[in-house]
Design goal:
The structure is a single chain. This protein has three helices and eleven strands. By secondary structure, the chain is an alpha+beta fold. The two termini are 30 Å apart.
Length: 161
């Protein structure tokens, strides 16, 4: 399955695992084969604090996984350089920017196309370009983190969540 096909049902296959930005111990996947690993999506809104996935290994061991920023060192260096105070909750993936703003990265990381490369070339600051749009249709502006090689949406978490 492709990342776009994950719709709340259990999907099986090793391809889906490598297409996501996530926190999964690599050694947990060492002996896994395509027909022995499944992912289950929990929740519907990727911006919700409780949205996540459960990975089930061939021995039926399960682990909750939260999304992570694929370019975490780039993002943290960027925030530190601009003296932005932040905290990352590794249990939920939520990034809190001091002042009350909360964000949650999407599981999907996408390779750049020519339009993205052009945007990155003209807009990057210290290797990062930001595109602002409402990517999930909830009426809140989200961010898209774009680096030289890939892009990832970082959703604004609603204040009521």
């Amino acid at each position: 399955p492709t990342p776009e096909s994950l719709d709340g049902t259990t999907q099986t296959g090793s391809r889906a695992i490598t297409d996501f930005s996530q926190m999964v111990p690599v050694d947990a996947l060492a002996d896994q084969t395509e027909d022995k690993v499944s992912l289950t999506v929990q929740g519907e809104d990727p911006a919700a604090v409780d949205y996540g996935m459960t990975i089930t290994l061939k021995d039926q061991t399960t682990q909750e996984i939260a999304p992570a920023v694929y370019a975490l060192s780039t993002l943290t260096r960027y925030l530190v350089n601009y003296k932005v105070n932040f905290m990352i909750n590794r249990n939920t993936g939520v990034i809190t920017i001091m002042g009350g703003y909360r964000f949650k990265p999407d599981f999907r990381v996408t390779s750049l196309d020519n339009t993205d490369r052009t945007f990155w070339s003209s807009q990057n600051d210290r290797g990062v370009a930001w595109r602002i749009a409402d990517f999930n249709g909830d009426g809140l502006d989200d961010l898209e983190l774009i680096t030289l090689t890939a892009r990832q949406v970082i959703y604004t978490v609603p204040m009521t969540d």
